[in-house]
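Inputs:
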Amino acid sequence: MEEPFALIDRLRRAAALVEQARDGEEGNGKGAPPRLARAQLHEVHALSQESAASGAGFAIGCVLAGAARPILWLRTEAAERQGGRLHGPGLIAMGLDPAELVVVVVADDAALLRAAADGARCPGLGSVIAEGWGAMRGLDLTASRRLMLAAEASGVMMILLRVGGQVVPSAAATRWSVAPAPSRALAADAPGAPAYDLELLRRRGGPAGARWRVEWNRDTQSFDPAPLSGPRLPLVADRAVAGTPPAPVRGAG
Amino acid sequence: MPIERLRARRPHLFVARDDAPIAFAESVGGAMRLAALDPAAVAAGLSVGLTLADARARVPEVEVYPYDPAADADWLERLAEGARRYSPAVALDPPQGLVLDSGGADHLFGGERGLAEDIETRMARRGLTVRLAYGDTPEAARALARHAGAPAPDEMGAIRRLPVAALELDEDGCAALVAAGLKSVGDVLARPMATIAARFGREAATALRRLTGEEDSPLTPRVVATPIAVERRFAEPVARTEHMLAVLEELAGEAARALEERHEGGRRWDARLFRADGEVQALRVETGQPTRDPAVLLRLFRERIEALADPLDPGFGYDLIRLDVGLAEKLDAVQLRLEGGEARTEAVAALIDRLGTRLGRERVRRIHPRDSHMPEQAELLLPATDPTPRAEWTRPEPGEPPSRPIHLFDPPQPIESLAAETPDGPPARFRWRRKLHDVARAEGPERIAGEWWRRADMAPPTRDYYRVEDVRGRRFWIFRHGLYSETERPRWYVHGLFA
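Outputs:
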């Protein structure tokens, strides 16, 4: 069925994931989190609506770190209404040039998934971010598998950004949970670079559950491990965080 | 019969009673006066300009409708659209006329007579009475259609027998001619042109010359004839959408060959489906990049048909399908600034076109910078296919945290400031969407004055913006609307969220 080269590619990618998994495992939260691979489907969850902007920020960071541009950003009308519109000056402040972005606002989740499948099949794109709020109707194993296969064939980084929705089984290569983290204060107690608490909820062919606190560095376009500067709160309020050692404190500067 | 006034109206108005006199009334200087009549009303003794009360007293059974010139004009435009099946050059002659330049087109219908018959049958099917006339100039045709004179052996003879009203001068001019004993156009033509011009004014002479074809008056077609138009006529109407699409693909192929010769590609494609019963359905697809690939076009047309609110209804079938290239451009133009060469750019452009066709062009956007210091106006959402050239955004200083949020609320959302504030500081605690936020870090204010020049009466209050972060790390962009010196109790809003 499969072309031999495609098969080799797949195996290589799987090996790379395992490699990254081992890195993550070793530190379990130390060092930088693995980069999101291209040609894969990834899920980014902002578990509460208040974390929506952080979820979007993490997705932007992943796309920029993977140099997966241009970007097709699909949003539902619900996301646009509840979360506010994407703001050009804010995007460039994160390092994402709006000139490399096409924003599509669709009516509902069904249209979102359909447009996402179209985008994932387009080899000219670097990445597709499909942002849906709440329970994403129509998202099941079949739909996510379709996105995964399309991404594998085209090389597009396909990110499903879900805000405030229940986790459902999917074919995604990785599933992340993102919550805002207190930033490192600048002079006069001003908020610093965007900081996030990440948890790798699922990883295909590798251990999951590792956590990181990272800071987005726009100038190097990478996530740097961030020192703890505030109280570390569980990502999900009702879940215990026992067994996760805090990340080491690094000197500010 | 003074004027051809029988206008095609919405049929439902006529269903109830077809023999009752019908009149249209409009308000003139505070009184309702008749503006248009049907032949039955004229026969009953009514005339235009009569007050409605008088008319009702004289002919109690008259049916009166409000006179709606806008609807008439709209109807005429739709007729003009339908008339494009005969010739691409169709001009509106308000309030009731259409002028067709049938030169070179009438042989398709079996000559002038055949064309006239076809028009009459089609119009009759829609319940319209038409008065047709051919003329060497648009004026002659129009005068002959409006002012039926006595029959004459040739066009010039017919024109000579027209009443002077056919010159369509203003009332004074017309009255002057009649007063001078000139009743028909022929009477006027018998006088030397110089005398006419001297006595009745230049307009009279010009009108005369135009009528006789001595002076050319160009026809201004309603829609400028498109550079490339291909069409298929069918003896047997095509009733299936699939067949129609197949024809459309063939037409696209023909248009593509014509475009290729000019090194051009089309950006706007209009398919017009002429139904056998006279309805016209128009489908338009637009592409961000010029294209001449029939397969791509067919896919776009399919998306367009799928996106229609009402499904395409072929009725008894289409007897004419036409494809116009409304906008053509050099094919090597590149619109989107994308990395990775032409093939990738093309793939993305094709995707944008597909999404735009399916979802609507305005839903597929790009964000364009705009020079305004009001945050909600600092960007412009343009359709991704909009040809406005890309502009540079102001890049942030290295090492600085983002100063603008990635999500912006427009309009800003009110928050409740709960803890004591210093005059120049943010609230220590606020409530937004029913949740409390304790501010841990803050920076500001960044003062943004209202754009006072936009409103002459009063300048909107100054906004003091703060970047704040609550104890759990959520970052907000909030502002106080008004300084304490401006307002007694200024209100607070959250305008955006930082990533």
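Remarks. Residues 4-27 of chain A form the longest helix (24 residues). Confidence is low (pLDDT under 50) at residues 21-27, 229-253 of chain A.
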